[in-house]
Amino acid sequence: MALAFTALAAANANTTNQSTAYAGNAGTPVANDILVCWVMCSGNSTVGTLSGGGWTWNLLTSFTKTAGADIISVWYAHATAATSTTPSYLPSAAATGCIISCVRVTGQEGTNVPYIRQTATNAGSTTNPTVVFGAAPLTGNGILAFATNATNSTTQWTAPASFTEISEVAYNTPANSTETVSRATGQTNATLTWTNANTTAWVTYAIEFYTAGTGPTDPNNFGFNSTGFFGGINTL
Q1: For the chain, what are the domain ranges?
Q2: CA 11 to CA 162: how far, in whole Å?
Q3: Which of 36, 56, 70, 146 has minimal Cβ neighbours within 10 Å of its Cβ?
Q4: What angle do CA 22, 105, 58 make, to 5 degrees?
């Protein structure tokens, strides 16, 4: 099966100040999808929790932008059935807004966990944000990437060359925007570059997934007798 990246539902941007859960938009995965959610929560610097669909949501990574004022977290879950899922993020304390972008990943090597070759992140405040993998991606693998900045516009982002935009949303007070992009196959350049004229603080993040039938370790080992966690992350 070829790799595919599909929005679980439309990405959601919420500018409400609250300490209760921010709800994304509901969508129904196909059984055994891996779901990957990007959450950008402004006015808060500590990771909260993600829920939805009755699945266990595991934190893949987290980092901050805007001098530590905004927490960004990346989560994954194994959807064991075609159950309507509303990703909901509960901040650790009162926040000023939240963006939730959730993607269905199909055709990757892992069964219960994402089978990841490598990840990369970058931050800055220049035009044309970039992210650079530590090694050139394998042409048969798929890439899922996210970019966020402190500008309120949903028409500012142009995806990296040969990538497809999955979603682009924004909110104001304070201004924030996120674009989610993917490429199912064919990426061999380690550098991804977005076209964006703004110079507000930005963060980028990218994940390279092994396509089904490839990879050096058993994706069901959960890190045991393998060269990395998540069945082989960072195994180049």
Answers
A1: 4-209
A2: 21
A3: 56
A4: 50
Give yes or no for residue 223 having a pLDDT over 70: no
**Which tokens go with 129?**
């944000």
Q: Which of 89, 90, 96 is nearest to 43 (CA)?
A: 96
| Cβ pair 76, 82 in contact under 8 A | no
37, 39, 104, 165, 195 from 161: Cα distances, Å: 23, 24, 22, 11, 9
What phi and psi, each to the nearest 5 degrees, are found at residue 26? Answer: -75, 140
Question: What distance, in Å, lies between the first and last C-alpha atoms of the chain?
Answer: 22
List CB contacts of 170: < 8 A, sequence separation 6 or more. 13, 99, 151, 152, 153, 154, 176, 177, 178
Residue 217: pLDDT band by 50, 70, 90 thresholds? low
Between CA 112 and CA 55 the distance in angstroms is 11
For residues 98 and 41, the answer to whether their CB atoms sit within 8 Å is yes
The per-residue pLDDT for 92 is 94
CA angle at residue 226 from 113 to 218, to 5 degrees? 55
- To the nearest 10°, report the CA torsion of 78, 83, 88, 92: -50
Q: Which residue has the tokens 């990757």?
A: 108
Q: What angle do CA 86, 223, 79 make, to 5 degrees?
A: 20
pLDDT at 112: 85
Instruction: Let me know how many helices (H) and strands (E) the chain has, helices first.
Output: 0, 16
Report the chain's C-alpha Rg in angstroms. Answer: 17
**Beta bridge mates, 162:** none
